[in-house]
Design a protein that fits this description.
Blueprint lengths: L25 H16 L6 H8 L3 H8 L2 H29 L3 H23 L3 H11 L3 H4 L1 H20 L5 H20 L3 H5 L9 H17 L3
Helix pairs in contact: 1-2, 1-4, 1-6, 3-4, 4-5, 4-8, 5-8, 5-9, 5-11, 6-9, 8-9
Length: about 230
């Protein structure tokens, strides 16, 4: 029987910047409430009034801290993304030091998966995963520029490493490989309990090591199958 989080991975745990608990400041409560509301309803259907009510603050305080709904929405990603990106870069740095091509590829894939999986395990919530999934798939996300500004640079860092680890693959294939890895990660992050229900509790996204035990071989075997 697996024990959650007992084995070490090659990527350290990220620290969230949205605290939980009763000692949160008003600004932190707004961010936490907004993350849940945006994840549940999407950007367009979420109102600042509902967020203020959930955070138990006046609406004017939301405007004071964030300037309105777009600023608040972006602030959630600004709070979450740096830790995740930092952990990915740390994972890629380990991959850069690895001489064995199989081990290098393993570390690159882990660098994408582990930070987000750990974030979900720490928070015990799928809110940010669902929010990220919404933003990635929303046609209007281009207007907001969040993915481009905050995540495209690390995507380019990952694909450049994949190209080194898989020198026989075309540029298009490298980017499809990256898309599949990220798509898997986002779907797991956004899971709101379905896999636990279908598996009678034997598959749990909050069990980081258990999740990696199944995801990594599936992804790596698929990537390597053309060798």
């Amino acid at each position: 029987m697996k024990t959650k989080g007992t084995r070490k991975t090659d990527v350290a745990e990220p620290a969230t910047k949205i605290p939980s608990g009763d000692d949160r400041s008003a600004k932190d409560r707004i961010l936490a409430a907004a993350e849940e509301e945006f994840a549940s309803l999407g950007f367009d259907a979420t109102s600042v009034r509902h967020i203020a009510r959930a955070a138990d603050v006046p609406m004017a305080l939301v405007a004071y801290h964030f300037g309105g709904k777009p600023g608040l929405y972006r602030a959630i990603f600004e709070a979450r993304t740096p830790a995740v990106v930092g952990q990915r870069m740390a994972g890629l740095a380990l991959a850069d030091l690895e001489q064995d091509s199989d081990r290098k590829l393993d570390l690159i894939v882990k660098s994408v998966l582990v930070p987000m999986l750990r974030l979900r395990a720490i928070e015990h919530t799928s809110h940010f995963g669902i929010l990220l999934a919404r933003e990635v798939s929303d046609p209007r996300s281009v207007e907001r520029g969040i993915i481009k500004d905050m995540l495209d640079p690390i995507a380019e860092a990952v694909t450049s490493r994949l190209a080194v680890a898989l020198p026989d693959r075309s540029t298009a294939e490298i980017h499809w490989i990256y898309q599949i890895i990220v798509g898997t990660m986002v779907y797991v992050m956004a899971d709101a309990g379905r896999i636990r229900r279908l598996s009678n509790g034997t598959a749990d996204p909050e069990d980081v090591e258990g999740t990696l035990e199944y995801l990594l071989p599936i992804l790596l075997n698929g990537i390597r199958s053309r060798r």
